[in-house]
Amino acid sequence: MSRAESLYRLQLLDLELDRARKRLREIEASLAGSSALEHTRAEAAKAEKALRLASAELKSLELDAQALDDKITSEEQRLYSGAIRNPKEMLDLQQELDALRRRRVALDDQLLAAMEQVEQLRADELRCRQALAQAERNFADDSAHLRAERDKLQAAVEGDLEQREALCSGIPVKDLDLYSAIRAKKPNGVAVALIKSGACSQCGEVASSQLVQQARTGAAPVICSNCGRILYAQ
Predict the structure, then answer these.
(1) Which residues pair with 117 in a beta bridge?
(2) Given this model, what pLDDT does residue 2 score?
């Protein structure tokens, strides 16, 4: 096995480790919380609060209506009991009763509107609560799958690390240092480029037949003059 081939095989392991670790981070983020679930939970809380406030307002109107009914009943009893004989006082009381009855009619309109609102909000709250329950079930199911995937990936990472350690033991330290330095500079983490159709597969720089031969069997790593990667020819 040439030195370039050893580094290429090392890179295959490292890229696989990169993908696995990236996916593990995504899984951990998903297990920590779902944005869709949090949104559904917030909507349910908002609907519950709106229903609670509207129900409290309806209750307040009902108490006002009861108090007004009691007041009207009391004043009617005074008016028709015969206890009041002064015509002006009777007229004043009659006018007050008329005003109370008008207020009661207006209050009925408010009560009807409030009851309709509560009915609508109760339906909204039920819908949001059901959506939240479904979202929580979905999250639980997804979490189970994610945990299984995480366990599988973690086992794969451990296996890859063991292979990497064994492979690195047969690679010269200076080659490992060169590989690591190049890999750290490349956004895609590719330090070793295959030569395909006589050119660097990463940047397209054409390689001479001599360079291709050196990349295939050379005693030292061959560097692409354009992108600075280690060249490897199969």
Answers:
(1) none
(2) 84
Counting every residue, how long is the chain?
234
Residue 197 φ then ψ, to 5°: 55, 40
Please say whether the beta carbons of 20 and 234 come within 8 A. Answer: no
User: What is the dotted CATH code of the domain comprising 33-168?
Assistant: 1.10.287
Its pTM stands at 0.67
The amino acid at residue 174 is: K
Run of H or E residues at 200: strand 199-200
pLDDT in tens, 8-56: 999 999 999 999 999 999 999 999 888 889 999 999 999 999 999 999 9
Cα–Cα distance for residue pair 178/160, rounded to 1 Å: 21
What is d(CA 163, CA 5) in angstroms, rounded to the nearest whole number?
A: 15
Does the pLDDT at position 184 exceed 90? yes
With tokens 């593990």, the residue in question is 24
Q: Give the domain ranges of the chain.
A: 3-10+172-232, 33-168
Closest Cα partner for 49 from 115, 121, 136, 135? Answer: 121
| Other C-beta atoms lying within 10 Å of the C-beta of residue 44 | 20
Token pair 């080659």 is at which residue?
Answer: 175
Give the integer Cα–Cα distance in Å for 161 and 64: 75
